[in-house]
Amino acid sequence: MKLTENGILILDEEDVSGMYCYRDRDGTDFIDGFKFELKLQDIVVTPGSIVSVQFPEDLYNQPEEIKQAVYAAIEDIEQNKN
To answer: Which of 9, 18, 49, 81 is the most exposed place for a label (fewest CB within 10 A)?
Structure first.
């Protein structure tokens, strides 16, 4: 996962795989798994710091649930930082 200086959060296949692992192994929902990954990778989200998210191409064959969880987590983090 990488946050560019232009505010684009780039997720890779390992990030998505990790979210599935947390869910399947630990019972952690995708939102909390994504928040955990942000912390692990020392990515600080502040209001307006993320303007778009780039998902791995093969994610397009995955459930919309992952994308929704990422956007919901970002929104939740931004709202709690105000």
So the answer is: 81
Distance CA(53)–CA(5), nearest Å, equals 13
How many CB atoms are located within 10 Å of the residue 6 CB? 7
Query: How many domains, in total, are found in the chain?
Result: 1
Model confidence band, residue 62 (pLDDT cutoffs 50, 70, 90): low
Distance (Å, whole) CA 1 – CA 66: 15
d(CA 62, CA 58): 7
Q: Which domain holds residue 39?
A: 2-81
Give me the mean pLDDT over the 17-31 stretch.
94
Task: Report which of 40, 45, 44 is spatially closest to residue 19, judged by C-alpha positions.
Answer: 40
